Amino acid sequence: MRVLFVCLGNICRSPTAEGVFRRLLDEHGLASRVAVDSCGIGPWHVGKSPDPRACEAAARRGVDLSGLRARQLADEDFVVFDYVLAMDHDNLATIRERLPHDCQAHVGLFLAFAGQQNREVPDPYFGGEDGFDEVFDLIEAASRGLLVDIQARLGTSR
């Protein structure tokens, strides 16, 4: 099973989701069965570390983002990943524009897994530090829901 989190530049929201979800998989003994990655729609930050504010917010909650590096969404991602999860409607629209007709991946908004069908994970990039904490809270909630969905698909509900 493979999960890809997608945001605009891959330095705030999607790397946070990658880090949070990796930790959750570790805690539930599923790290060896579920691969996780993140990327951005655009090329602006390719190769760069996550935003320091995202790293600080994650570190305060025991999640290490320091080893992550930004990359851009690639055509092969639609073949490789079982879940392609967008942080907002604009990201989702771009993903759907590029979606091959035979794509088998679940493509949708990440917060749908938190029971919030049309809600977006807001981009904290131009805001203050508290925006990164809000993003972290939303990502944790959606990650728990995604874990339940994956456990059901893998037949490992706990």
Account of the protein in words:
By secondary structure, the protein is of the alpha/beta class. It has one domain: 3-Layer(aba) Sandwich (Rossmann fold), CATH 3.40.50. Helices cover 41% and strands 13% of the residues. The protein is built from five helices and four strands; from the N terminus they run E-H-E-H-H-E-H-E-H. It has helices at residues 13-27, 52-60, 77-80, 89-98, 129-154, and strands at 2-7, 35-40, 83-86, 106-109. It has a four-stranded parallel β-sheet with strand order 2-1-3-4, sandwiched between helices. Strand 3 (83-86), helix 4 (89-98) and strand 4 (106-109) form a beta-alpha-beta unit. Helix 1 packs across helix 5 (129-154) and helix 2 (52-60) crosses helix 5. The chain is globular, with a radius of gyration of 14 Å. The model has no long low-confidence stretch (mean pLDDT 96).
Topology, please?
Blueprint: E1 2-7, H1 13-27, E2 35-40, H2 52-60, H3 77-80, E3 83-86, H4 89-98, E4 106-109, H5 129-154
Parallel strand pairs: 1-2, 1-3, 3-4
Helix pairs in contact: 1-5, 2-5
For the structure shown, list the relevant keywords.
about 160 residues, alpha/beta, Rossmann fold, 5 helices, about 40% helix, LMW_PTPase, Tyr_phospatase_low_mol_wt, hydrolase, protein-tyrosine-phosphatase
